[in-house]
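Ticket #4471: complex job returned nothing on first submit. Input attached below:
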Amino acid sequence: MIRAVFFDMDDTLYDTSGFAAIARRAAVKSMVHNGLKCSEDEGYGELMNIINEKGSNYDKHFNILVERINGKLDPLIIVNGIITYHNTKFAMLKLEPESFSILLYLKSQGYKVGLITNGKELKQWEKLVRLGMYPFFDDVVTSESVGVEKPDPEIFNIAMERLGVTAGSSLMIGNNFDVDILGACNAGMQSMLINSEITPKQKEILEEMECTDKVRELGSLIDLMKIL
Amino acid sequence: MIRAVFFDMDDTLYDTSGFAAIARRAAVKSMVHNGLKCSEDEGYGELMNIINEKGSNYDKHFNILVERINGKLDPLIIVNGIITYHNTKFAMLKLEPESFSILLYLKSQGYKVGLITNGKELKQWEKLVRLGMYPFFDDVVTSESVGVEKPDPEIFNIAMERLGVTAGSSLMIGNNFDVDILGACNAGMQSMLINSEITPKQKEILEEMECTDKVRELGSLIDLMKIL
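Support reply: We reran it on our side without changes. The output follows.
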């Protein structure tokens, strides 16, 4: 019997990638209006190249973009990108109704609710607070705070220990098969994949790991209510 | 005859210290509401100690505050401080009417207008853009971008050279005697001190430097209109 439900945050409870894409498009539009010498589509494409090269936690994407396109740094263009990116992102930071509903449902039914997220401690907590989501969680585990990240089973073990629950009574919900689902399987938990589909190749992997019975696909967060 | 007017930014054109104090008080209030174990006055006092110890460009003031008061880091309290500080600061970032008026007046009269500011390039530019002040300036010199800071006469020389003006036709306006006024004197410029008064001791220094005739006190930025 499930007593604790653990969630991934980004792209599971909050459409991080979708909203980041909108904020980046807004930022590039502002940069082009302020002198970035390319079209908005070209600028966005190059920005995505830079993010892929440097990772999303690097903090000088816009500097590199301006230097590559215009041949030199221009603070006016860079800060217009930064300001527009942050204004747009913060304007969109609202908890989605489905996430709100399912978290409230789980609490009302007496489940323990945890968050297990890869990322920087304060950056992830800032999202939790701005979204107004943190009061729903009995515990929050960020990879930076515990020094180990998903899919390492250790981060799942830490999260379960902190909530005082066993793997047999724990369910993990996430959008990333390799990170959330395989990690949870290795820690002995049941898990559900959301916003993604299990491929035939991934089904084979689950069979090899003898985890097939422990993993399901979830159409939407609300479906949890019917399943639990 | 004066052809170019150079301004300091912080506490000259914009009440940086006053607004930072309000944003910090708001941040501490939010942190106390979220579990910082002290009164708001105690928290603010300790925060100011930390800022004096670490400098205002250090980015972990709130982390240290929480660790000192509560004995351990608590991400919920820290991010509430950060979010409230930024929300409050950005909400107050508006160009003051006096600054707007005098900048518009100088441009309408054909003066060249420059900015000479100590600080980080993008941090200072972000203020210029958020305040909507940057279009008034023919040139902006930040200490980070040129590798030398006020009161070194070199930064004033760079600024004058970039605007194509001589020291004899240049006026510097700032709030800091040691940084803005002595620096400008050493570069051969006239200068005006605002939001501060010249002390007897400082008058002696000016006499020794033979700068007495080149320095005046300014009651308000608007008074520039009568003087020029």
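The two ends of chain A are 9 Å apart (CA to CA). Closing as resolved unless it happens again.
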